[in-house]
Amino acid sequence: MVIPAVYLTHTSQHNYMTLADKFKSVIRDVKDFPKPGIVFKDITPVFNDPHLVGELLNEMAQHITVLRPDAIAAIEARGFIFGSLLAHHLGCKFIPIRKAGKLPYRTRKEEYSLEYGKAAIEIHEDAVVPGSRIVIHDDLLATGGTAEAAGKLVENADGALVGFSFLINLSFLPGAENLRTRFGVNPYCIAEY
Ligand code: AMP
Q1: Is residue 146 part of a domain?
Q2: Which of 117, 122, 143, 178 lies most in the core, judged by the most C-beta atoms within 10 Å?
Q3: Overall domain count for the chain
Q4: How far is the CA of 101 from the centre of ligand 1 (A)?
């Protein structure tokens, strides 16, 4: 069978793409979701490609394993996807952080500001072993408000916050800088916009 040249070119280009570029090429921009003016970075197409999921997982795990985490604390809901994969891959615990009112047992709560109004997230009060090393994971870092609230939950439970991991950083916003200043750790992100 003769393979058309255009196909070969495309394939070889694909091979030379960085993982971040490959990831960005499948992220879907959804305009005006969940409200006008927001461009939502939809990561669900990534899950049509299990090989890419594996590559992203390996890449993140390589960066996070050096932090020697005891647990990955992930933020509902999209943070749960790679958060639980990472915890399993690294052989450490998984801690869910959820929107207020969702966790069944006794919780600690942290409020944070949204563009309009406030939101709150919670963690089970016994989820963090005091002194244990925690990495917080979410799909996307924007202003950093959500991740900062998650960091406070870990700190208030006497956990040692050793890192943040995100698939995407909207680097035109000050989220990464805010987390660096507030917690003294450098957030790790695969793709920057
Ligand atoms: P922030 O607290 O501003 O850093 O926002 C981060 C949280 O909001 C994460 O849990 C994201 O899943 C979600 N988020 C914010 N902006 C977007 C966006 N443009 N696309 C997808 N998710 C977003």
Answers
A1: yes
A2: 122
A3: 1
A4: 20
